C-alpha cells in the first residue's frame, strides 16, 4: 500500500513537516517493503492555493492515504473526492509514524484542522521578496499566462510556471493519470483553475498597492 507523508527530508529518518501544503517534500512510502520516494513540493511557495495543488499532485501519485500535521479545507476536499484516507496531527520521525500506521494505531479523519490559506499567512514573513512582482521579464515570451520568470507569486518564477496553459502549469495537468477517473480529473482541473483565479486576484491587488 502506498501512502504519502509531508516531510522535512528525503528519507524515512526525516521528521514530519506539520504544514501539508508548505512542506518541502512528500515521501511516497510503500508500506509492504518500506521503500521510499521523495517528491519535492513544487507548490510550497505559492502565495495561495498551495494546499489544493499539493493535494491534487499527491492524489495523482496513486497513494491510498496521506499523513501530515495540519491540512486546510480545500485540500481535504480533494482527498475526500479521491477517496484518500487523511491522518492529521502527526509529528516526529517518519519511519515511526509509518510503523504506527501499519499497526493500525492511527485514525483517519475527514475534518480539516487548519483554516484556509493558513500556510500563506505563516509564510508572510518572507515579505515582499516572496511576492516577487518585479524579479522577472514580465508578461510575454513564456509559457501559459506569463513570461515564464516574470510575475512570480513565490520565488519569482512566474505565472507561466504556476498557472500556465493546459499541460504546462500544474503537476499532472494535461497528462494522463491512471489514478484519476475522467470526472475526478475534470474536478481537479476546475480546482486548479480556481487556484489560478486566486493567484491572479492577489497579483492584481498587489499591482494596485504599487500603483
UniProtKB/TrEMBL annotation:
Chain intervals for the UniProt region annotation (Disordered): 109-129
Alphabetical list of Pfam families matching this protein: Nitro_FeMo-Co
Every Dinitrogenase iron-molybdenum cofactor biosynthesis domain range: 13-102
TM segment ranges: none
SUPFAM superfamilies for the chain: Nitrogenase accessory factor-like
Skewed-composition ranges (Low complexity): 119-129
Name of the protein: Dinitrogenase iron-molybdenum cofactor biosynthesis domain-containing protein
Organism: Desulfosarcina widdelii
